[in-house]
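Hi Y.,

Following your request, here is the sequence exactly as I used it, all 639 residues.
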Amino acid sequence: MVDRNLVREFDVSEEDWIDAIGELADGDTSWLESKYVDVNQIVEGKIIRVDEEFVLIDVGYKSEGTVARNEWEGEGEEDPPEVGQTVRVLVEDVEDTQGRLDERGMIVLSKRKAEKIEKWLKVMETVHENDVVSGEVMRKIKGGLLVDIGVNVFLPASQVDIRRPHDIGEYIGQTIECLVLKIDEARRNIVVSRRSLIEAQRAEKKAELLKELEVGQSRLGIVKNIADFGAFVDLGGIDGLLHITDMSWGRISHPSEMVKIDDELDVQILHIDYEKEKIALGLKQKTPSPWVNVGDKYPVNSTVQGTVVNVMSYGAFVKLEDGIEGLVHISEMSWTKRISHPSEIVSIDDSISVVVLRIDEQKQEISLGMKQTEANPWEKVADRYPTDSLISGKVRNLTNYGAFIEIEEGIDGLLHVSDMSWTRKISHPNEVVEKGQDIKCKVLSVDQQRRRIALGLKQMDEDPWATDIPNRYQQGQLVKGAVTKITNFGVFVGLEDGLEGLLHISELADHKVENPQEVVNVGDEIEVKILRVDSEERKIGLSRKRVEWAEEDEAAALAAEEAEAATRSDSSDLKGGIGGDSGPLFKPASAEETPAAEEAPATEEAPATEEAPAEEAEKVSPEAEEAPATEETAESSQT
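Below is the corresponding structure, written out as C-alpha cells. Let me know if you'd prefer a different format.
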C-alpha cells in the first residue's frame, strides 16, 4: 500500500513537469471515443506533401492539417516522412472552434503529442501503484531523474539508492528497476522509487539470511559505510557493524586505516541480535590473539623494550608488540621525581625500557614500571643518613603538623612541630621555618620499608629541661612573668622566651575565683611563686596567692595537701599540670567550694590540641603528605 504522506514530498511542480516531458492535452480522455474529427482527438491521416518546415496530412476533414517537420527529428531511427505514409496525429485545433488555424488556413496537428498520449494510455493499462517497472534513465531534472518505462516517469534523488549517491547523474544511460509509488492520472506523471525496491528486496534477503547466520561463521561482505566508531558491512541483505576495536589486535585511530568503502572483507560473526536485527562482526578474530601465552613471552619481573603510544594524565601506554600494550602508571615512573603529568617523563613514540610488574590475561592488561629499571635509592638511605647524623636540606613544604625537608631529590624527611623546640609551644611550623629555607637537622629515625625519615631541630641543642631549667627555677622561688593565655582552669605565665608555667585557678587568689579574667588579663606582668618544677613532664606549677605566705604557712599548706593526697585514690585529679607520681602540688578545693575545678583538665595539655603529639612524627610520611596536600594547600595552611 502506498504511503501518501511519503509521496507528497516527491511531487514535481506543473511547470517542472511540462518542462521535463512537454505539454500534453487535457487529462480527460473521453474525447478519444468520438467518431468525428474534433479538437484533442487522435486520428489517422495520410501524408500528401512534405516540405522543409511542414508535413501536409489529410485526416478526412474539410481541410488538410499540418505537422511541424521537426516532429520527426530526435526520434531515434524513425524514417523521415514520405508522401503516402499513414500516421496517427492529435488534432490540436480546427477552424470551427476558435478559428486557430495555421498561417495557411489549415488545422493544426501534432504527431509527437499523439504518440505520447498513446504511450501513456498503454502504460496505464499495465502499470499500477506498487508494481515493479524497468526503464532507462534518460536525463537529470530538478530534484531527480527521468526514467523511460514507455513514458517518462520521475525518480526523486532521495529514492535513487539506500544511501544517496554523490552525483545521481552517474545513473544516466543505465537500465534500472523501480517500484511505482504514485500515479497521477490528471497530470500524467508517475513517481517511482529504486530505493523502496532495494529495501523490499533486502528485507526478504535479510529474513532469509538471519535464518542462516550463526555466531562464529565467516562471511564475505562489502564495506558500505565508514564512521568514526567502525564500518558497516553488507553481508548480502543485512548490514553488520565491524567495530573499530574488532578490526585489529593493534591500536588504530580510525577505521579508514583498515578498510575502505566497497572493500570486500572476510569477517566473522561475533554476535546476533535477532530481535533488533543487529549483527556484530569481527576482523581481528580471523587471526590468533597475541595475548595467547603472553605470560611466557613477557614473564613478570622481566625487562622489555617498548614504544610509547599514548600519554594520559594517570600514566603512559607502551606497545610491546602489535596488539599488546601495557600501562606504566605515573607512580611507577620514578623513585624520586615528583611528577605532575607523565608527559614530563615520556612522549609518544619514545622507545623505553620497562619491567613487567603484573599480567591479567583475562582482562588483557599488563602493568609496567619504569623506575624498576633503576636501583631504588631508599634501599641505601639508612646507610647514607644514619640515626643521630646531621643533614642539610631545604624546606619543601609546610603542613599543620610539620615541615617536609628535602634531603636530596625525591627524598624528604619530616620535621614534626613537636621536634622544633624544647620549650616553645608551636601551633604551626611557619612560626619557626619558612618554605624554601635552608636548614640543618638531626636524623631521629629511618624507616626504609615505609620510606620515612624523622628529623629533629631541637635535638641540635641539649635539652634545657635536663639541667638548665631545674637549676634556674626551684621550688619556692619568686619570679615575674607576663600572662600569655587564660583558660577556664587557669592562667599561663611566660617566664622567658618559650617557657611557660601554669597558674591554676585555685592559686590565683585567697578567695574563690570563678573566672580568671576577673583577676588578671593577657599581657599583665605578675609575680608568682614556683610551687614545683617537673622535668619529666616538662611543666612548672605556679601560685600567685602564696607570694606573701610565710614559711610556716607554706609548710602547713604542704602538710595538709600531702595528708589529703594520701586519702585520694586518683592523684591525677590534682591541678597544676605536674602529674600524680610526684605528689600533690596544690591544695584542692572541696567539691562544694569549687565544682568547676573538678572538671578542669588534669594537665595543661588537657585542652590542648595546641600541639600535635610527638608520636605523629612517626605516623606521617612524605608520601602521605603528598597525597592529600599539594604545595598550594600547604601554602594556604601557612596563612
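Confidence is low (pLDDT under 50) at residues 1-7, 25-35, 96-103, 569-639.

Thanks again,
Q.
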